[in-house]
Each structure stands twice: as structure tokens, then as C-alpha cells.
């Protein structure tokens, strides 16, 4: 196969899932109420609040009701677009203040650098907002890695388990679907990408998968192009 572009997931693929669930999510959860009360008049936050009202189908929901909804979505680990946008704004402060840095597996860092050097275009598709993606790579353990990437996609493109989302990404990238390799630790996402014509690799870092439906690797070093 000839690969011209690599599309990668973040959580569990380039980045330890524990960093997201034990560092990022609690950080936003603890600060979201104060953040919303302090910034509710800002246009970016107002847009997020309107999106949240749309999700709730309650155009009259007040700020305190929305705070409760955001907390519920975090507790249930729901991939809700306005929540992801709000988390991204809160995480900006955390990264800029040095409260944490974006975790990246060493092999992921090394291979992303290598592929970029070989002229392969790199893209990200994550349930986290584009802002959150840029923060993880921009404030990573290895410094600012955003120059490696040609583009970012989040759930505004579509759900990660639907083939049409990957078809939309193919159109945006501008090369043939079979020239794109998608990396993820979630088989349903890989199924959708394959249905759109992409090549796939299941990144199974923790343990050997049982009867995987895709070619699998334990880390990025095992990926042959």
C-alpha cells in the first residue's frame, strides 16, 4: 500500500487514557462552574451555552441548569460537542499555567516525527475538540508538536463510529481513501474508517486483542507502511 496521510486517534492511541481520565477530565470538572460564572458573557462561552441548550432541547435553560448538565455529561463520559468545547477552554488555562503537560507515548512521538520527515501528512481525529487536540500536542511532554500536523478533526465533522465522518475527512484531506491509514484503539472506529475505504491499524497497547477484526500493533514501532 502507498500511504500519503496518517489519521490518528489520541486517547489510548498516542496518549495514555489515564492522562485524559485522571488529569484532564477531573481538572475541567472541578473548575467548570467557576469558569462559566466568570466568563458567561464572553461570545465563545455564550456559543457553547447555546449549543448545550440545543443538546438539552431546552432553549430557556439557565446557567445553573447548564452547569449541572455539563457535570452530568462528564460523569457519564458522554461525547457531547459543547462539553468538549468547554473543556478545551478550561484546559487552555491549565496548560498555560503549567498545571500539566500533554502526555504522549515515546514511540508515538518518535514515529510521528519520522513520518512527518518522510513527507507523510499527519492528521488527528478525536472526540476531544480541535482546541483540546492542539493543546495536547502543543504543550506535550516533548514540546510543541503542532507543526507536525496538517489538520485536526473532531465531532463537528461527525461521530467517530460512522463511515460518513471518514468520507468527509477523505474529502478534506484531498487524497484517495486507500492512501490514508487510520490508527485507533477502538474497533468500531476502525470499522467505520475501513467502510470509507481507509487502511486501518488497531493500536492495542495494554494487551493482545481477542479475535481482532483489523491488523493490530502493540505500539507505533510495529506499524509498517
From TrEMBL:
InterPro entries: Enolase-ppase_E1 (IPR023943), HAD-like_sf (IPR036412), HAD-SF_hydro_IA (IPR006439), HAD_sf (IPR023214). GO terms for molecular function: 2,3-diketo-5-methylthiopentyl-1-phosphate enolase activity; 2-hydroxy-3-keto-5-methylthiopentenyl-1-phosphate phosphatase activity; acireductone synthase activity; magnesium ion binding. It catalyses: 5-methylsulfanyl-2,3-dioxopentyl phosphate + H2O = 1,2-dihydroxy-5-(methylsulfanyl)pent-1-en-3-one + phosphate. It holds the Pfam family Hydrolase. The lineage of its organism: Bacteria, Pseudomonadati, Pseudomonadota, Gammaproteobacteria, Oceanospirillales. Bifunctional enzyme that catalyzes the enolization of 2,3-diketo-5-methylthiopentyl-1-phosphate (DK-MTP-1-P) into the intermediate 2-hydroxy-3-keto-5-methylthiopentenyl-1-phosphate (HK-MTPenyl-1-P), which is then dephosphorylated to form the acireductone 1,2-dihydroxy-3-keto-5-methylthiopentene (DHK-MTPene). SUPFAM superfamilies: HAD-like. Pathway: Amino-acid biosynthesis; L-methionine biosynthesis via salvage pathway; L-methionine from S-methyl-5-thio-alpha-D-ribose 1-phosphate: step 4/6; Amino-acid biosynthesis; L-methionine biosynthesis via salvage pathway; L-methionine from S-methyl-5-thio-alpha-D-ribose 1-phosphate: step 3/6. Monomer. Keywords: Amino-acid biosynthesis, Hydrolase, Magnesium, Metal-binding, Methionine biosynthesis. Its cofactor is Mg(2+). Belongs to the HAD-like hydrolase superfamily. MasA/MtnC family. Binds 1 Mg(2+) ion per subunit. GO terms for biological process: L-methionine salvage from methylthioadenosine. HAMAP family: Salvage_MtnC. This is Enolase-phosphatase E1. Its EC number is 3.1.3.77.
Amino acid at each position: 500500500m502507498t500511504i500519503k496521510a496518517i489519521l490518528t486517534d489520541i486517547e489510548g492511541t498516542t496518549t495514555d487514557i489515564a492522562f485524559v481520565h485522571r488529569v484532564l477530565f477531573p481538572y475541567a470538572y472541578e473548575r467548570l462552574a467557576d469558569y462559566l460564572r466568570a466568563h458567561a458573557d464572553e461570545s465563545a462561552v455564550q456559543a457553547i451555552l447555546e449549543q448545550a441548550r440545543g443538546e438539552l432541547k431546552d432553549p430557556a435553560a439557565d446557567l445553573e441548569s447548564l452547569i449541572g448538565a455539563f457535570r452530568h455529561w462528564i460523569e457519564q463520559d458522554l461525547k457531547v460537542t459543547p462539553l468538549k468545547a468547554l473543556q478545551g477552554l478550561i484546559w487552555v488555562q491549565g496548560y498555560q499555567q503549567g498545571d500539566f503537560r500533554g502526555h504522549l507515548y515515546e514511540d508515538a512521538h518518535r514515529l510521528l516525527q519520522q513520518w512527518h520527515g518522510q513527507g507523510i501528512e499527519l492528521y488527528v481525529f478525536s472526540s476531544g475538540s480541535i482546541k483540546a487536540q492542539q493543546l495536547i500536542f502543543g504543550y506535550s511532554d516533548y514540546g510543541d508538536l503542532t507543526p507536525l500536523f496538517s489538520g485536526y478533526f473532531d465531532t463537528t465533522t461527525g461521530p467517530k463510529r460512522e463511515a460518513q465522518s471518514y468520507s468527509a475527512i477523505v474529502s478534506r484531506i484531498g487524497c484517495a481513501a486507500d492512501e490514508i491509514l487510520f490508527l485507533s484503539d477502538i474497533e468500531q472506529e476502525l470499522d467505520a474508517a475501513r467502510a470509507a475505504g481507509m487502511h486501518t491499524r488497531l493500536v492495542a497497547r495494554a494487551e493482545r486483542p481477542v479475535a481482532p477484526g483489523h491488523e493490530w500493533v502493540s505500539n507505533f514501532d510495529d506499524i509498517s507502511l
